[in-house]
Amino acid sequence: MKRTVMILLLVLLTVGFASCNKKEESEEETGYQIYYISNSETRLETKSYQVEATGKYEQLKELLICLGTTSGKLEYKAPLAYGFKVLDAQIRRGTAYINVDAAYKELPATTEVLVRAALVNTLTQIEGVDYVNMTVEGRQLYDNAGEAVGRMSADQFVYNDGNEINTYELARVKLYFANESGDKLIAAYREKHYSTNVSMERLIVEEMIEGPSGQVQGIYPTINGNTKILSVTTKDGICYVNLDATFLKVKNNVSIQLAIYSIVNSLVELPTVNKVQILVDGEVPLSFSRAVYERNLDCVTTLEQE
């Protein structure tokens, strides 16, 4: 069965090679953007492409073919043409799962990040696909800093001029978690190596969802750990945090308002953020007391006061 599937995949790749190149050359084609890697391997480049398939899985296969197709004009490099193979690809519950072989781990660090970025930005254009999860022969993928990669969304990849595509920095952030009774916030510091492809705002929201590390006793999560980040952007000092509806399912007797202020107080510690707007599936819920929140230290206590 596996041999038959591999033969079929090779046939599809052969057929797709010609069709992808043909469609790229048409300036009138619109639709999806296929992300490729520049010849200098410092940034991504895009080409318009009209997907013919209609089903999600069929679109996934079609896009993977294009991602493995090298341009006849050699204008850029295909992210799936770096010597590794895609062993399996499927879509489950809004996530595209891509399993590659061990040759993937031989990629240079910068190239590996660019490959991931190209895959994520391309595949999350499929309707209903918000994340991409990559594994190496079925095992967890780790980045250059030794951190588990996990699910990736398109807004995780923030591009500068291409020179910082794979740099890592040590961040010390101040996060606000709940006390034992769930009616007050307690500040805790956390140090973490992070990729500069991820904005500090998103890093903070991710850490809040992850919850306390366990190194500090007496603090508890304020946010449901199953909450998904849809987007995090900052403009004119306001950070817009868009979460899925799981955010409204509170934990540990924490009120939704305290959960909101745990995020707000954590984000306004950044010099780039003055206010925060939290959205749920793109909208401000009627249960929220306001549209935009500012820092609130009245709900903050300390472990010594507990």
Count of individual beta strands = 14
- Using only C-alpha atoms, the radius of gyration works out to 22 Å
Annotation field: number of helices: 5
What structural class do you assign from the helix and strand content?
alpha+beta
Distance between the termini: 62 Å
The parts where pLDDT drops under 50 for at least 5 residues are 1-18, 24-30, 160-164
Largest sheet: 5 strands, mixed
Plain-language structure description:
By secondary structure, this protein is of the alpha+beta class. Helix content is 24%, strand content 26%. It has five helices and 14 strands. Strands 4, 5, 6, 7 and 8 form a five-stranded mixed sheet that branches. It has a three-stranded antiparallel sheet with strand order 2-1-3, sandwiched between helices. Strand 12, helix 5 and strand 13 (275-280) form a beta-alpha-beta unit. The model is unreliable at 1-18, 24-30 and 160-164 (pLDDT under 50).
